[in-house]
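BUG: 3D viewer hangs when loading the predicted structure for this chain

Environment: internal workstation, default settings.
Expected: structure renders.
Actual: progress bar stalls at 90%.

Input used:
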Amino acid sequence: MLSSHPGSAEVHVKLVNGSRATLLRLGPTRVAPSTALMADLKALLGPAAVAG
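Structure tokens produced before the viewer hung:
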């Protein structure tokens, strides 16, 4: 799904488990931040799981 939104912004994923959080950078994957990308992420993961 990220490949449908190519661009120059790095992709970071924050995983939260209770009081612990881990921040991941998705290597060479880059996207164009847009309302379309945010809508796709919210549809896939749910609105509460997407910030930005």
